[in-house]
User: What shape does this take?
Amino acid sequence: MSKINIKELFLELTKYNTPYRTEDKVKHLLPKNIKKDEFGNYYLRIGKSKTMFTAHLDDASWGGVEPVKHVLRGDFIETDHNTILGADDKAGVVIMMYMIENKIPGTYYFFLGEESGLQGSKGILRIKKDWFVTNFKRCVSFDRRGYGSIISRQMGSQCCSSEFVSALKKQYDSVGLPHRNDPGGIYTDSATFMGIIPECTNLSVGYFNEHSHSERQNIVYLEKLAEASIKIDWESLPTIGVKKSNYGGYGGYGNYYDYDGMWD
Assistant: This one.
């Protein structure tokens, strides 16, 4: 049984805003064996999984570090409307920490500076692109508003195959948390790896009104998502990839693959 209390961890992570370059302020809440990569992002590997999970530690509080006053309204956590909450993307951080505690295989990346132009994910990709090409079949970000979205398009381009979406939807549906194909994605760190990693997506974590003082998080949904996510067989998801004609080259790295058995 997990020792992590989802609500308490979320409240602790969002006690202060963390704009880009202040992310170290929450390091003490991350797993004790967390590592830093060459850019400064935090990561942890469990097993030999070909799945990378991502969330970002910064938030959209460009005015600086401020204390957050939480307000609880039913299933939701909000603020007193004088600051943002930071659920984007501390909610994703919570999910990943819950999965880590439950020893779900994968590489867990806690990126810096997503809100400032994907600084952490782009930065480390420039340094060690071949490592990402070699090690991963799928990249799953936990950083989408609302409920039940499996993002299939980001920045107007396809980011994962329909087969991948269908298989992931089937698994979440089977554990009691219905999901759907959502082609309306904007971008998050998984967009950095489009054309580098075959299957890239972004999943809803239950926040709303992100980047504003009316931001709020459904903490009950977050708890349900955490429990559901440790029941998913991530390694069984298909690796089909995105055809070159459907990929707009968001990252500008110019890598395209046929994916026919190349990852086996």
Observations:
- Residues 6-246 form a domain with the Aminopeptidase fold (CATH 3.40.630.10).
- Confidence is low (pLDDT under 50) at residues 247-264.
- The chain has seven helices and 13 strands.
